Amino acid sequence: MLETSTKQPAKAAPTTAQDTPKSAGGDTDAMPHAETDGFHLIIDALKLNGIDTIFGLPGIPITDLTRKAQAAGMRMISFRHEQNAGYAASIAGFLTQKPGICLTVSAPGFLNGLTALAHATINCFPMILISGSSEREIVDLQQGDYEEMDQLAVAKPLAKAAFRVLHAEDIGVGVARAIRAAVSGRPGGVYLDLPAKLFPQSMGAEAGRKTLIKVVDPAPKQMPAPDAVQRAVDLLRSAKKPLIILGKGAAYAQSDADIRALVERTGIPYLPMSMAKGLLPDTHEQSASAARSYVLPEADVVMLIGARLNWLLSQGKGKTWGAATPKAWGGQKFIQIDISPQEADSNVAIDAPVVGDIGSCVSALLKAIGPSWPKPPAEWTGAIAERKSKNVAKMGETLAKNPSPMSFQSALNVVRDIVRQNPDAMLVNEGANALDFTRSIVDMYKPRKRIDVGTWGIMGVGMGYCVAAAVVTGQQVIAVEGDSAFGFSGMETETICRYNLPVCIVIMNNNGVYRGDEKNPTGGTDPSPLVFVKDARYEKMMEAFGGVGVHVTTPDALRKAMEEAIRSRRPTLVNAVIDEGGGTESGRITSLNPAAKKKA
Ligand SMILES: Cc1ncc(C[n+]2csc(CCOP(=O)(O)OP(=O)(O)O)c2C)c(N)n1
Ligand SMILES: [Mg+2]
Questions:
Q1: What is the average per-residue pLDDT within 8-22?
Q2: pLDDT at position 587
Q3: What pLDDT does residue 591 have?
Q4: Is residue 97 left, alpha or beta, with left meaning phi > 0 and alpha meaning psi from -120 to 50?
Q5: Which protein residue has the closest C-alpha to ligand 1 atom 6?
Q6: I need a labelling partner for 94 at 20 to 30 A (CA). Which of 396, 447, 468, 589 fits?
Q7: pLDDT at 597 (0 to 100)
Q8: What is residue 9's predicted lDDT score, i.e. its pLDDT?
């Protein structure tokens, strides 16, 4: 029979007529075998919709939900901190197009997960944060309940949608609404509030089953209007210096073959944003990545596919785009393919918005351009090729150097080889210099293999992403982590060992944030705010939980350690000692640092 008793919360059992769901009726005693309850209805609703994994952390009032989910055959991945479970859920959503589920306790657990929910919303990843919450009547009168907080109100401004379910018979609708909100249109983070009293509410099993909803077509296709497609094609045809920019929305769409066909059939040079790397192999001859600072100001027509003109593209204006002043328009015409009509004109005028899901839009464009499309002028592609080969040769020289201590480049040259030899491996990447150097040095060969700091440039996604990538894809995971970045989620090395995941973490250890050689200007004993304990032995953290830890100071040793990690698929942490003076402030975004008028 389905259990209706719960170990906790003891006080959550229905006590008043008002608490008892209408449909529970008098079945409880008469037909104990034909009952279900809130716990089981939640699990059944998720399973019915093809959700088989939960990332979370147990405690009142959701402890039994974690147990029962596992007992019901779901994968329940238990973390050491909810923020990491949340990041795991968010990236699971990106990788699968199904909402990633993060399950937390009330107030503090909910708040820990909330950063990840906001991150999912801002990055357009489908995710559902499910949090248990305390007694509504006590919370609303602010009478001081255990972990009291009006979570729904707190979540609303940070989520795409937020719902609360009070009665077991509404669980089916609540889960269905959360799924639809997370994945339809522009995906995002959804909050689902489940008060403690909901879980033990019982009702007839058959009646309960009938309340569940299997969501039909949760992310309906949205076809672009034919005239919008034609306008875009006409503009593209007029271009002398066209450029395509692929964003992570293009990667999310899983329309890989069509996107590749559009790029190749038009012959237009393209730039992948960091999580779109690998949609076409980075070694593709049309990739303009190595000539980015040339193509952005020079292009005359730019087609954005699932890429927003946010700070990562200098808001489409200013010096990056060849304009004289930071706010001025560079003169480019833009085609923007995006699921959200509100995206157009957010920063500069969009001459040809094409609104629809990326797959439908790209397929409509392919049809409209037909089988023969004039290649872009050779002057344009030739000029790009020239810059590319110069920059690639320069990079080759740097990569071939073997300084001691290791530079970011000499270490990443090894990672570059390893990823080339293992193109199916997932690459997780965070840090400042550790991020920027990896993005430019390590080529990706397949779609959705690179997952990183995303829209916010957020630190702390590392280990959550590693766990989710391993669980969701089953592939080897390689994480290139700044030593600061790693610290945000380092305790999840235990989670990686506990679930025995094939994760190889490489820490680019330069003893600090950006670099490790900064001093306290007063000469006092406190270290600079940017540095850590010198020569920290991070690899011992992995050893502490039964994984493999390796300390390396040369590219050869790094290569050996990574090869062994991939061969054995054992949880491994390679502590790669990097020149502590090799980084720059904020990596490539030094210019975003407000400069003090007077130096401290
Ligand atoms: C949540 C969050 N907190 C703080 C920051 C600011 N920040 C940007 S990069 C960075 C760490 C850079 O150091 P590290 O990861 O060691 O990379 P390195 O440049 O040294 O290679 C920090 C703290 C951030 N981006 N996100
Ligand atoms: Mg560092």
A1: 38
A2: 84
A3: 80
A4: left
A5: 459
A6: 589
A7: 66
A8: 38
Separation of alpha carbons 529 and 153, rounded Å: 36
Would the pTM of this model clear 0.70, i.e. be above it?
yes
Atom of ligand 1 nearest to the CA of 508: 21
How do residues 20-76 score in pLDDT, each as one tens digit?
343 433 334 444 569 999 999 999 999 999 999 999 999 999 999 999 999 999 999
**Strand (E) positions, 174-262?**
189-195, 202-204, 242-246
Hey, what are 537's tokens?
Answer: 């032995």
Place of tokens 């790669």: 576
Ligand 1 pocket test: pick from 484, 579, 589 the residue with the most ligand atoms within 8 Å of its Cβ.
Answer: 484
Q: What size, in residues, is the chain?
A: 600
9 preceded by a cis bond (ω within 30 of 0) = yes
Instruction: Answer whether 483 contacts ligand 1 (Cβ < 6 A).
Output: yes
3-state secondary structure of 143: coil
pLDDT in tens, 418-472: 999 999 999 999 999 999 999 999 999 999 999 999 999 999 999 999 999 999 9
CB 555 within 8 A of CB 518: no
CA distances from 255 to 126, 325, 392 (A): 17, 37, 29
The residue written with tokens 């006409």 in the block is 234
Cβ atoms of 55 and 89 within 8 Å: the answer is yes
